[in-house]
Write a structure and sequence with these properties.
By secondary structure, the protein is mainly α. It is built from eight helices and no strands. The protein is 54% helix and 0% strand. The longest helix is centred in the N-terminal third of the chain and has 19 residues.
Length: 189
C-alpha cells in the first residue's frame, strides 16, 4: 500500500475527509495535472491519455505501448525526469522521481484521481488539534511568554511547565496532551 493510501485510510478512521482535487490551490492543481500527464504518457504513450488526439511527436518511441513494456516505459520516464535541470525539476515538483515513485503515483491516481498525484503537503491545512483546548492553549502561551527570553529551555522542560501550569490553574479537570502533541502544536503556533 502506498503512503498516500495509508494517509487517506487513517484520515477516514479519524473522521476526516478524503483528499480531493478541490483541496488543491490552483498552482498545485497545475503541478498535479503535469504529473498526471507524465503518468498518462507512460501508460498510453500520449500525454493527454487519448491516442485519437495525439500531441506533436506522440507517441515517442520509448513510450509507445505497442513496442515497449510498461516497466521499460517507467524506466524511460524516470531517466527523462532525472535528466531535467534540478531547478526546473524542483519548481515542477518532479525532483527525485524514480521508478517506484511512478508506480506509487499511478496507484494513487487510479484510486483518488488528480488528488492522487498531489504531494500530501500541498493539501489544505488540518483543522487543528482536537486535544488542545482553550485551557491548554492558555497554558502553552503562558509558558511561551515565560521562556521567551530564557536561554536554551528544552521542549521536555516546556512540556512539564505546560502540565504544571494547567494543573495549578485549572486543577485535574483539564486533560493535557502528551509530549509529541504539545511539541507539534508548539512548532505550529
Amino acid at each position: 500500500m502506498s503512503t498516500g493510501q495509508l494517509q487517506d485510510e487513517e484520515s477516514l478512521e479519524r473522521g476526516r475527509q478524503v483528499r480531493t482535487a478541490g483541496d488543491l490551490p490552483p498552482v498545485r492543481r497545475e503541478l498535479a495535472l503535469l504529473r498526471t500527464a507524465h503518468l498518462l504518457e507512460v501508460e498510453t504513450g500520449f500525454r493527454g491519455g487519448v491516442p485519437l488526439a495525439p500531441g506533436p511527436g506522440e507517441p515517442k518511441a520509448v513510450y509507445d505501448p505497442a513496442v515497449t513494456a510498461l516497466s521499460q516505459r517507467r524506466r524511460a520516464k524516470a531517466a527523462e525526469l532525472a535528466a531535467l535541470d534540478p531547478k526546473h525539476a524542483s519548481a515542477l515538483g518532479l525532483e527525485q522521481v524514480g521508478y517506484r515513485t511512478l508506480i506509487r503515483w499511478e496507484a494513487d491516481r487510479r484510486r483518488f484521481g488528480l488528488a492522487g498525484c498531489a504531494d500530501g503537503r500541498w493539501l489544505r491545512e488540518n483543522g487543528g488539534h482536537r486535544s488542545v483546548g482553550e485551557q491548554v492553549r492558555e497554558a502553552l502561551f503562558a509558558v511561551r511568554e515565560e521562556t521567551r527570553y530564557a536561554s536554551r529551555v528544552s521542549m521536555r522542560t516546556k512540556e512539564r511547565m505546560v502540565h504544571r501550569y494547567a494543573r495549578e490553574r485549572f486543577g485535574d479537570r483539564v486533560e493535557v496532551p502528551g509530549y509529541d502533541a504539545l511539541r507539534r502544536t508548539w512548532r505550529e503556533w
